[in-house]
Amino acid sequence: MKMFLKGAAVGGIASALVVAATAALAGTGVGGIFNLGQTNTVNAKTSLKGSTAKKNLQITNTGSGSALGLRWAPVIPR
């Protein structure tokens, strides 16, 4: 009985670690989750597509700053 409880405890701890690691890595990479409030980095095109009579995207900032900021690398003519 003691051996069974010890094995069950080790199995429970191991499975908890696997679940935690899977949850931590689930939103990374292309096709991953877009995390709000964090820097999201990906080296692929991102698109927003929808079929609606209203706006597809609304950005509202109730503070004093801008609602949207865009940055891009300068294009150097050849």
Explain this structure:
With 78 residues, the chain is mostly helical. It has one helix at 2-25. The radius of gyration is 23 Å and the shape is elongated.
Strand content: under 5%
Ends: how far apart? 77 Å
The share of residues in helices is 25-40%
Total helical segments: 1
Indicate the structural class. mainly alpha
Radius of gyration: 23 Å
Estimate the mean pLDDT confidence: 78
**Largest pleated sheet:** none
Number of strands: 0
Could you spell the SSE succession in H and E letters? H
Low-pLDDT residue intervals, each spanning 5 or more residues: none
Name the overall outline. elongated
Helix-strand blueprint:
Blueprint: H1 2-25
Which features does this protein show?
mainly alpha; 31% helix; 78 residues; 0% strand
Task: Write a brief structural summary.
The chain is an all-alpha fold. The chain has one helix at residues 2-25.
